Amino acid sequence: MARSKDQEARRAQLGEAAVRALLSRGLEGLRLKDVAAEAGVTPAAVLYYYEDLDALMYETFQQAIERFCREREAAAERDADARGRLRGCIAAGVASGPQDRLPRLLFEYWPRTLRDPKAAALDSVLTERQIGVYQGILVLGEAQGHFTLDDPARLVAANFVAMEDGYQMDVLAGRRSPGEVTTALHSYARAATGCRLAAP
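-> structure tokens emitted (200 positions)
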């Protein structure tokens, strides 16, 4: 049992080192020895736990997706009113700035999805879970009488996610502030649902 806990702790340490190295160097320039240096171990020690660097980065990406989705789903469920849920969902999806680690990590890894089917499958999970959160809020809003949708809820939800992804790049690059992006998404929410999202 103690050995299992030690191994879990070491894998967590390596995962955190992988995040730091990725955010520092970017995925394309990342080498196994960079992660090892961040963790204070030898490359051989990293390979004791992972087949190669790709396996470590895949697990790191997978964990980041799970964390991002859980946080967003929790934010969307804090309010019984669909309008509050939509506000919370939007707020949870916008990066706080260029140094917001979790969204930066997701975007740093994203180019791998263009060539790697396993990475692409993970990215699809991320997208579908976010669409699912928005779709649930939109359906609830219609049932509560707050939202009027001219398009199917899933299409509106997918549009929210696509807009967020585009704006997220602007926030991470320092071209837009989180407040500007939130305002833009609230504007789309008003156009798509017929409901103005008042400040909480």
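The domain at 1-50 is CATH 1.10.10.60 (Arc Repressor Mutant, subunit A).
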